[in-house]
Design brief:
It contains twelve helices and 14 strands. With 330 residues, it is α/β, with parallel strands linked by helices.
């Protein structure tokens, strides 16, 4: 086994988020499914952007947010994602490195532009996302850095990326390298629409190649087409070593080694924007796992990070997670 130089290496969509407030009427007028992520083309992206109110631009992408969370805790994180050498691509590359995450993927000189996600936050703090994937869809096996995967204790795969055939081959290459080197592989299901589109493939992936699974309540119920969360929790037993299942204000449940750990949610004074809650939960959990913490403590760190990020706009932490974690673990 090679020397471990990264705690976690994330592979996913490299996206710049554009966040703005909107009311329910705006969602209806623009035929947007509240609380979901919808893929859109470049033309619709431009039209929707023109109709949105004042917004803020921040680098995002699910796995990238998770890696930024790990780095904010003081962990060693890396990221692989496809960007175009354009303004947004250079912004993303700068931001991910500034967050303390190793990023070495070359920017493409041609092809589709850098991806963007238009995020509308309604007064109830729910986020509705419309994503133009752009350059992301061209990520393939050539972008997988074999040395980085071999040296990462955990490789973390983003379910949002499981659409283009080349990206699937990239994932397969990554989990082969990781397991050949005695490493662990994690997967986030990302969104119920991803599960609905790829249910059979995801179930095979979880059963055969995934060591650590992240899913929210809707995703895990959809994966097993279960009657409710409790039934889905029973279904996932034995399919992977660890399943971390989040339930929003109900906290999370961790299924591992025949046991279930139920962890309460961290209190939040005021929920502003739920964007990135699952991403940061995974970040805190994986940071703890890489440090050898017990699963309950990993889940508490995940809840801590999720609670921090939903207290402000944007999907990356603003508070000092090292300080918050120290207080939580005392």
């Amino acid at each position: 086994m090679s020397e471990t130089t990264l705690d976690v290496l994330g592979i996913g969509n490299a996206i710049v988020d554009v966040l703005a407030h909107a009311d329910e009427g705006f969602l209806v007028e623009n035929e947007l499914a509240k609380g979901a992520m919808t893929l859109i083309d470049a033309e619709r992206s431009e039209r929707l952007y023109d109709r949105m109110g004042p917004g803020i631009e921040v680098s995002g992408g699910s796995a990238a947010n998770t890696m930024a969370g790990i780095a904010a805790f003081g962990g060693r994180a890396g990221f692989i994602g496809k960007l175009r050498d354009d303004q947004l691509g250079r912004v993303f590359a700068h931001d991910i490195r500034a967050a303390g995450v190793a990023f070495e993927t070359p920017l493409a000189a041609d092809g589709p532009s850098t991806a963007r996600c238009l995020i509308l936050v309604t007064p109830d703090a729910q986020r509705t996302m419309s994503t133009y994937l752009g350059a992301c869809v061209e990520l393939g096996p050539d972008e997988i850095d074999e040395a980085a995967v071999a040296s990462a204790a955990i490789t973390y795969l983003e379910g949002y990326l499981w659409d283009p055939p080349a990206a699937k081959e990239a994932f397969r290459k990554a989990h082969r390298i990781a397991h050949d080197n005695g490493r662990r592989v994690a997967l986030t299901l990302s969104d119920p629409f991803c599960v609905d589109r790829h249910r059979d493939e995801f179930r095979a992936l979880v059963g055969d190649h995934i060591d650590i699974l992240f899913a929210n309540e809707a995703e895990i119920v959809s994966l097993y087409q279960a009657a409710d969360f409790d039934a889905a929790l029973q279904d996932v037993r034995g399919h992977c070593a660890i399943a971390a299942l989040t339930r929003g204000p109900k906290g999370s449940a961790i299924v591992a080694d025949g046991e279930v750990h139920v962890i309460d949610a961290q209190p939040v004074a005021h929920v502003v924007d739920t964007t990135g809650a699952g991403d940061l939960y995974a970040g805190g959990f994986l940071y703890g796992l890489a440090r050898g913490f017990d699963l309950a403590r990993c889940a508490r760190l995940g809840g801590l990070a999720a609670a921090e990020v939903i207290g402000h706009m944007g999907a990356r932490p603003e508070a000092d997670l090292v300080r918050l974690a120290a207080a939580e673990l005392d």
